[in-house]
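Entry under discussion copied across for reference:
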Amino acid sequence: MEMLTSEAATQLGVSQRQVQRLARGGRVVSRNFAGRTVVARGSVLAASRTMKRGRRWDAQTVAAATELLEQGTTERIAGSQRSRLRARLRTITIGELAYHALGDRVSIWRRAGKASVRSKAVPDGFTSTGEKLNIQVTQSARALARKLRLLQDNDGDILIVEIDTDAPAVIEDIALFAYGDTRTSSAARQRLETRLTAVA
């Protein structure tokens, strides 16, 4: 579902102008409709769970962090940079991790011709939650959308995270934490906390 920026501002506890900035920056998924900006309710929920300040990590740092969390090692960065990232992962909160990892890398889609009907079939490679949220981690959201004949839709049930990583399971859990319902988010949080605790 979509909401006006005024509703989103109330939910996030910020000004309407700040919501518009979040939309321009890609933190909340938005579109223009009849001369007004509307935002995806799911992305507002995700923003509320990841409201942090500061510069987001670049794609290389995100990929290195997720690989450290999933595999315990990474070749994307080396030496003192890798040591600093390990130290940061020992102290980071799940909300901060989601803020850095997701940033403006998320888009919401639906299958063509199924605007209001949720399909029970899950496309190959997708993670399905109990709430019918399907997640795919890919290098190119547009290429995957063309291949699977998806339409960008703020009310869609397919979440695509655009990043090149060898640790898609961590990104999927981060997306589930941010965009999932309460139960799904809590389960993803626990899995991520276990991974963060294991960082040596």
In short: Confidence is low (pLDDT under 50) at residues 115-130. The CA atoms of residues 136 and 160 lie 5 Å apart. The domain at 1-49 is CATH 1.10.10 (Arc Repressor Mutant, subunit A).
